[in-house]
Design brief:
It is globular, with a radius of gyration of 15 Å. It has 97 residues and is α+β, with helices and mostly antiparallel strands. The chain starts with a strand and ends in a 9-residue tail after the last strand. β2 and β3 form a beta hairpin. The relative contact order is 0.21. The chain contains two helices and six strands.
Length: 97
């Protein structure tokens, strides 16, 4: 799955710890605060989230863009130490006849 991570760390220590974790998962730094990986699976993503949880504090913000997640696009956000996920996808629409 394709995963893009956008970081907004609250401090230098969080930024360094997050960069180390993302590099270990083969993420490539694309822009100053944007990292991408094309070869992550669901299990690795869950482990990555736990590791990120361990090094972040209440003021760190992280956003992950994932595709495909059940044939849809997902945005997962860590804000105030809580993960939230929004899945945007095409649902089969039935025509009314």
């Amino acid at each position: 799955m394709f995963v893009s991570v956008v970081l907004d760390p609250s401090g230098v220590e969080s930024a360094k710890a997050l960069a180390t974790i993302l590099a270990r998962y083969c993420f490539k730094k694309i822009q100053r605060a944007c990292w991408e990986c094309m070869s992550l699976n669901e299990q690795q993503l869950a482990t990555l989230k736990r590791e990120i949880d361990n090094v972040t504090d209440y003021y760190d913000k992280i956003r992950m863009y994932q595709f495909p997640v059940n044939n849809a696009f997902a945005i997962t956000e860590l804000h105030h130490k809580k993960w939230r996920r929004c899945v945007l996808g095409t649902s089969e629409q039935k025509s009314a006849t």
